Amino acid sequence: MPIEADTLNINGRIFHSRLLVGTGKYRDMEETRLAIEASGAEIITVAIRRTNIGQNPGEANLLDTLPADKYTYLPNTAGCYSAEDAVRTCRLARELLDDHTLVKLEVLGDEKTLFPHVTETLKAAQTLVDEGFEVMVYTNDDPIIARELEQIGCVAVMPLAAPIGSGLGIRNPYNILEIIENANVPVIVDAGVGTASDAAVAMELGCDGVLMNTAIAAAQNPVLMASAMKKAIEAGREAFLAGRMPRKRYASASSPIDGTFF
């Protein structure tokens, strides 16, 4: 497949960038705009509980900085700790964004770890799918739960690489690989990426994309880090498509001497 034709397909929606980025934690709207432009991302997440996209008329509106005709908004349920809160938040997003149905579901278990609350996530996913939402779902790196979420009807499964905001990189690559090998929907690593090499590793494993926020926003130079992440995603994807050489225990000469004249 030509690299130019290698696109990300989320429930029939086609994207050329495999990097999804969040809009929180930046110093101001201008830095947000510059970093997201440098990332090349087409999908941007917005925490409905924390960001104004029209519900607070007197505040700066993110839609003015990052217009919806340029980016695909992915409203998320960050800060929700129950299925009921998450479902209510998605309904609000649909109203604010004119019947927008593509959402990122996350239901958290506790404030310390921000690990997903799996049973509440499953409950919320079922309700949202039944109501016609296209659900991209944040979950742990459990292949069994990932399969259940796909069976419910989620359009993308988004296992964590490490705890949200930790920057630890992929802690359980074999779990992620197991999810990828058994999924029939896009698998997008969400949470835990710290730097460009983490993003490249995720893509080399065969992930369909990576979603990040803190890794860019908390960098000393967010705009430069966004550019680095864009390149890392592209390089990791190309390496995956190219197919790496087999690992060997011993050296193998790049220029063998067989057939030489001495």
Structure description:
37% of the residues lie in helices and 16% in strands. The protein has nine helices and ten strands. It has a five-stranded parallel beta sheet with strand order 5-4-3-10-9. The chain has a three-stranded parallel beta sheet with strand order 6-7-8. A two-stranded antiparallel ribbon has the order 1-2. The mean pLDDT is 93.
Entry summary:
This protein is an alpha/beta fold. It is 37% helix and 16% strand.
Order of strands across the widest beta sheet? 5-4-3-10-9
Q: Looking at the structure, what is the overall shape?
A: globular
In oligomeric terms, what are we looking at? single chain
Radius of gyration: 20 Å
Mean pLDDT: 93
Layout of helices and strands:
Elements: E1 8-10, E2 13-15, E3 19-22, H1 29-39, E4 43-47, H2 62-65, E5 72-76, H3 83-96, E6 102-105, H4 118-130, E7 134-139, H5 143-152, E8 156-159, H6 173-182, E9 188-190, H7 196-205, E10 209-212, H8 214-217, H9 222-242
Helix pairs in contact: 1-9, 3-4, 4-5, 5-6, 7-9
